[in-house]
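hey can u check if this looks right to u? its 332 residues, i copy pasted from the old doc so theres a chance i mangled smth
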Amino acid sequence: MDLAEIFSLNGKYDLDFSDVKGQEQARRALEVAVAGGHNVLMVGPPGSGKTMLARRLPSIMPELEVEEAVEVTRIYSIAGLLPSGISLLTRRPFRKPHHTISEVGLVGGGRFPRPGEISLSHCGVLFLDELTEFRQSALEALRQPLEDGEVSVSRSLITVTFPARFILIGAMNPCPCGFRGDRSIPCQCPENLYRQYRHKVSGPILDRIDIHIPVPRLTREELLRSPGGEGSEIIRERVKRARDIQRKRFVDQRIKENSGMTQNQLRTYCKISPSGQEILAQAIDKLRISARGLDRILKVARTIADLEDAKAIELPHLAEAIQYRSWDRERP
């Protein structure tokens, strides 16, 4: 059996986006995220479908390349998690650690350094459900790996570097009771309690998450409707085309996706018209967007343009990218 057959037989997923009812905005945002390698924060009440959406993300990601599959297999072998009888992992990882996980468990470490969850998510998805319940130290430890795509674990006699290029999907309730902004259930949280809750996820972490999207509860009509949205295969084909554009754009450069662009690359590939500059200025004033947050908007806008095979970033692309910073509007 050759490699193509192995990937064809073992690289398929049981979960599909056609299973999801409603949530068109979230579905679109996740397509943009996968197309450009962007991190996502989903905010919504319990039962709105955040976990269901996240679990289906690997099904719209392009198949692992051989080099990627070898890297993932090595990581799982080092961690002692390679399934018996499997010589090559061909599915993109999906990791969902519990919120009680330690910093070492998340980032890696131990007396004999072993990869943590962020490296076990390499080339796949790291899903942090109930984001506000994770230890602050564990969340803050994500900051550098999210920037560098790798993590170094140091001990007295040795320093080991593990790859850690993954898409982070965070999920949280909008407030402690879970119903702030709900269309029918009023929020019961005092304002000071809400502010404390929001501050559990720091500004620097939020700035490293490119896309913030609300995932509201489904209406009665949406709940009763049969699933019938686009399937994962259709979405994956659009993602592949957008990634092919990026691969050609960044040929002979160190990155493959828009999410990894440097300042110089932003200036080269994300030029904005005067009218676009005006829209960005308004967004900065209204949303209190940081310099890093502005870079995220430009990267996401570039990905949206790539999904449409557009040479330049146009006003609709910018407007959609700004819309994905919705959580910035709610910052206390």
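Residues 244-329 form one domain.
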